[in-house]
Structure formats: C-alpha cells, structure tokens
Specification:
By secondary structure, this protein is α+β, with helices and mostly antiparallel strands. The protein is built from three helices and nine strands. The strands form two sheets. The protein has a seven-stranded antiparallel beta sheet. A two-stranded antiparallel sheet has the order 1-2. The radius of gyration is 22 Å and the shape is elongated. Bound molecules: zinc ion (2 copies).
Length: about 180
C-alpha cells in the first residue's frame, strides 16, 4: 500500500514536471510564431525583420495583409552613415539581421567628433557614429534626448546589413544593460 502511494506520488510529480517544461516551451515558442498560421516559425520576413513565418507558403498567403505594415516599418528605419566598428569579433553577415542595440550620446570624455556610441548587450559589438552632418544621426540623437533614459541613452531596434547600420527611431522600453 505504502509502495503504491509512493509510486502514485512519483507519477504525479512527473506529470507536474512535464507540465512545467511544456509551459516553458510554449513561452519560448511565443516569441517566434508564424504570422499566418500561429505555428512555431523559423523564417523571418526579410523586409521588416520583425515578423516570422513557418514557411514560404504562409508568407505568401499573408503578404496581402502584411505588405503595408512591412513597408511602413522598413521605411521607418534610418540608415546611419559612417559607423566605425571598434571590435570586429562580431562576424558581419551579408544577410540582414535584426537586433536591439543600446545607443548613447557622447560625454565630455569622448572624442568631440563622435555623434553617437552604439553597443550590443555583451559589448562584442561597439561602434561610433562619427558623421556629425548625418541628419539621421541627428534624429536618433533627438529621440534619445527627449525619450531616452535620462536623456543619455536608449535601446533601439536595429538592422545590421554587412556592417551597415539602420536604426528605428522608436525608443524601446528600458532594458537591464
Ligand atoms: Zn505558418
Ligand atoms: Zn515584413
């Protein structure tokens, strides 16, 4: 009898653990869900880099609905001129990648020719925007001043394409780095 209770309890714990793990899986999959069929997705729209699809068929099917927002989103990105990357450990791929970067204004200790400083979370990518006549750079600067953290820095959605950086001027919620 005691043995049976034990094994029942064991079974119960196994079920609970399984449910917990499955819950985790669901959370992870939530991040990449096909815009069309809501199944887990691995392919990203190369236009806006913001939505995911499970297959080419789904992307095709969904294009009519997505077209306008894709275009608007893509056009919303501002290409920054003259980004000098300080660390080249990061391998620039020829295909575009979407990432969140932290962009800050220079302080009095930085070189006066620097307009903006850019880095990723683990600092494996660090860059300077040095073209002070870059109107897009000025727009990002303005966004940081008005909506960034303490008017000093902000997190932005960025598209990196072969070392060329485009930034969406919407300041993202504060991250912990
Ligand atoms: Zn799909
Ligand atoms: Zn798109």
């Amino acid at each position: 009898m005691a043995n049976q209770t034990k094994s029942n309890m064991k079974a119960l714990f196994t079920v609970q653990r399984k449910a917990k793990n499955e819950g985790k899986l669901v959370v992870q999959e939530k991040l990449k869900k096909c815009e069309n069929c809501l199944f887990p997705a691995e392919k990203r729209c190369s236009g806006c880099c913001l939505v995911w699809y499970c297959s080419g068929e789904c992307q095709k099917e969904h294009w009519k609905k997505h077209k306008e927002s894709c275009k608007a989103r893509r056009n919303g990105y501002l290409k920054l001129g003259m980004v000098v990357w300080q660390q080249m450990i990061f391998v620039f791929s020829s295909s575009s990648s979407n990432l969140v970067l932290r962009i800050r204004l220079p302080t009095s200790e930085d070189n006066p020719i620097i307009l903006l400083l850019v880095n990723n979370k683990d600092m494996s990518m660090r860059g300077q925007v040095t073209d002070y006549k870059d109107p897009n750079g000025d727009l990002i600067k303005e966004a940081i001043k008005t909506k960034g953290h303490g008017g000093q820095y902000g997190f932005f959605n960025c598209i990196l394409n072969g070392g060329e950086l485009s930034v969406h001027p919407t300041v993202l919620p504060q991250a912990d780095w």
